[in-house]
Structures
1.
Amino acid sequence: MLKRIRIPAPPKAQNDYPGKGMAMDKYDVLKLDNQLCFPLYAASREVIRRYNPLLSEYGLTYTQYITMMVMWEERCTTVKDLGNRLFLDSGTLTPVLKELEHKGFVTRERSAEDERVLIVKVTDSGMALRDKVLGVPGKVASCVNLDPPEAAELYRLLNKVMGRTVGNE
């Protein structure tokens, strides 16, 4: 059974953050406890760490898994569009796609209209994988110490940080 993730509490009051009216030493902005980026980083690493043993049963890494999620939705897309959707550059995405192709989950081919465009298509085997991993999100969600409204709010805020509107990716 997976253990629930505990994310450290933020400072006690809103004005405990740098720049919110407190008299501070000039180096307070460099304290780890005053960084928004650190709990985002640590929480991301912890959640991905929870995915790894579940995904390894299917021979997938987390990056391969999120790539397959997009492929299940789109069925066919370009490498450029896939990279944009996943916030991954081609240097990161190319080896992921090569491995997924080697496993028989996707195919890659050049566009007939423009050879510079690489098209990725999910295979029947790749679509079958979707049913196998269907329980993974629920298992990971059960480890996160958030109730559904908190999870929805976190999702909204993270998408705001990423500069996109939820539903308009």
2.
Amino acid sequence: MKMLGATMSRISHFPLPAEVLDYLDEVGILSISELPIWGKSELVDARSKVAADWLERLIDTQFNHPSIIGWSVGNEIGRYDRNPGAREYVRTAITRAKALDPSRFAVYATNTAGNQQDDPIAFADLITMNAYGDLAAAVEKTRALHPGKPIFLTEYGGGGELDSEDPNQAKDTGDAFLNQLRGKPYVIGGSRWTLNDYRSDWAGWPFSPPTGPSQNRSWGILTSDRRPKRSYFSYRAAHAPVAKMALQRRGADWSITLAPAASTICPLMRCGDTGSCGACWTRRATRSTPA
């Protein structure tokens, strides 16, 4: 992930062991810690003592980890036909999280904010949303219904056929997704589903392809044994901090010029890659050598 240029990972939908958080602290990878409440659940209820206890214990045990940047009170729980009490649950849970830890943001991961004007995301500090397929349409619909808050994609991907498990046959590229998000200053980042292929017995739904005979869900940009696919290299290129480096010598002086990739330093290209927004830079360092 560090070689990829990644700075954040949404690692799981449940609290992580202390050893994992210690490692994230050490290597500088940020994460949002999340309660294990997903989809239809009896815990999506403002009166649930279990959910309240889980949240308090989560924040109490992970508070001192600098890698944790925010708390999520659930994942994809906003459908009112499945969880009638979702709005009040999210409101009270986020209020409780902010009271326990005012220094971090509190959210829930939504997959319904683009279709519900009264979505519980109204109570979150920012919009953390899951989207697959047409990402541009998804974020634009969500923005139209919920203006004024930045959007972070807590999950995104193709949503169609799984990519090949063979690195030489994989067709997915990062640019197919990143290009849909560039030029939208309200989109502040995203977490790709997933870094690597993973074992699963998930049978698949009508909108989710079935798991193959290998039992691997091949959404990843790495194989299950961490071999890079083509998409890995496109993501690495998109996040490379330097577009070119020039070294010149004039007499006894050396000049080093670093020119950043504007679409990397400013991935959303607010200025259209012109540099007019001031986010792009060039640094020159001159060192004299002995005559």
